[in-house]
TrEMBL record, chains A, B:
Record family assignment: Belongs to the UPF0342 family.
SUPFAM superfamilies: YheA/YmcA-like (SSF158622)
This protein's name: UPF0342 protein GCM10007971_24900
A Pfam family of this chain: Com_YlbF
TM region(s), chain numbering: none
Length: 118, 118
């Protein structure tokens, strides 16, 4: 039991010390240190969260909101500092997804999935 | 980078070798090796998955389905072999949840959550 947690903390440390994580951190700080990019990124994040929330609640999304979201995405895509951050986020997401697949494999085997991989 | 994956595989091994995981595996096998429990457990799982699917698609759940689900849950709760499996599943879910919190902590810190824990 404690062994599992020891290994989880070792993994956390490896993530924290990885080039991929350090690059993400730098990319995030670059956005936060540029007022224009920061404001644009926060506006993008707010817009995404609002739309997600509405979708989850089954609420209608107005034409005005679709238009606003489209504008924010266009602004964000043209901003190289934010584009860099999104690239690094994507990279970390792949790693986190891989880790999740690796550590849930024992459970999948119990429940009979991926039996050909055993 | 490869270091992250090394640690992820070490963690997977620690999970696989843990008493908690071995107990889950035994509890699952006990259910699968008892035809009555197996059939009940599979019926329970199918019912849960069907209801989840309907909810996600925003479809109505009929009175008949609610009644059927209630019956299946009652049967399952009275079966000690399945009750044991669910207890072990719950235990593993807590561990997996803890691991997930531990390894996503660096990301949370980048995005400014849990700043008091840094
Ligand atoms: Ca600028
Ligand atoms: Ca029996």
């Amino acid at each position: 039991m404690s062994n599992i947690y020891d290994h989880a903390y070792h993994l956390e440390k490896a993530i924290r010390e990885s080039t991929d994580f350090q690059n993400l951190k730098s990319a995030y700080e670059a956005v936060m240190n540029d007022p224009e990019s920061k404001q644009m990124f926060e506006s993008f994040r707010d817009t995404q969260l609002n739309l997600q929330e509405k979708q989850m609640q089954g609420l209608d999304i107005t034409d005005e909101e679709v238009e606003k979201a489209r504008n924010v995405v266009e602004l964000v895509q043209d901003n190289p500092t934010i584009a860099k951050l999104m690239e690094e986020e994507q990279r970390l997401n792949v790693i986190i997804g891989d880790i999740s697949s690796i550590i849930t494999k024992p459970l999948e085997e119990v429940y009979g999935f991926n039996q050909d991989e055993q």
